[in-house]
Amino acid sequence: MTHLSLPEFAKPASLEEMLRRAGVLDGKSITAVSTEASFATVLSHIFRLRLTYTDTVPNAPATVILKAGRGGPWAGGKHEVAFYQDVAPSMPSGIVPRCFAASWDGDTGIWHLLLEDLTDSHFVATRWPVPPDFAQCEAIVRTRARCQAAFWNDPRLGVTIGSWQDARAHEEATKAMVAHFSRFADEMGDRLSLERRSLYERLFDSAPRLAQRNLSRRDMTIIQGDAHVWNCFLPKDGAKDGGRLFDWDAWQVNTGSDDLACMMAQQWYPDMRRRFESRLLDGFHDELLVRGVQGYDRRALQDDYRLSALWLIAAPIWQHANGIPPVIWWNNFERACMAVDDLDCRELLE
Description:
CATH architecture of the largest domain: Alpha-Beta Complex
Radius of gyration: 21 Å
Helix content: 40-55%
Shape: globular
Number of helices: 11
Largest sheet: 5 strands, antiparallel
CATH topology of the largest domain: Aminoglycoside 3'-phosphotransferase, Chain: A, domain 2
Strand order of the largest sheet: 1-2-3-5-4
Strand content: 15-25%
Low-confidence stretches: none
Mean pLDDT: 95
Structural class: alpha+beta
């Protein structure tokens, strides 16, 4: 655990102002801020801060989580700030950590989030890259279903919450991916088999037809985007609806199956995925029904999941193009391609 220097906006006066605006301080002052833990991720800095007040302050947090950018042109921080400003307030309580403050500076690109600290009440199931056991995985997919059901076919989607991709945007995205893949293939050389080269070429050729599922805007919701088992907090007391989803820098309006494919098809090797996959899809669908989603049967989920798994082979190409470490994109590439084989996703290209 590396201790990092606190940014200026983590000083007592700044934090006091943030918490006062959030309605958890009533004229009391923060006298000291200490760093209990800190670490750097690929794209951000995370701090667990302990706050000292002038007096006992009911409902004021003793600790908070500060998430701040590491600098550079990455726009994910802006996107996550927008999530906590525009989307999270519309969610039912108990799906994401409470956000006390969210800020993005358009001139400097500096951003930060001040979040509820769930360290004492919740935990991340395992340490990356080891996957959780089945019960923990089921709790995670049911948390995702609970979140997605809250926005399923919501008329605000693409209007006041998120945006729709049109045919032109899909076309431009495909062109960019073709260029990325060309560079990827050149670098890989004979490590990329002719069979897999053909798979990607067929995907790009079929992209306009496959995009019709998304363009239909049918059975759509808010998804997390980079959805894996390590961005969900599980409750230590085992409460049924106690899961909390965090890391929303890749959120979008899309098919809910994209998050499931990211979690399983991209992250898991075949043995575990084959044993868990179908049962977890069953649990996800059952939770959607419990939460009031109608007109979306289990077969529709399976069809969407296979399509999501097919599209996921593009993700490691994007990761490679954007400088994500090979320890991430290389394993994602292998697992996604194996999932395409297991799920007979090539059938969708015919």
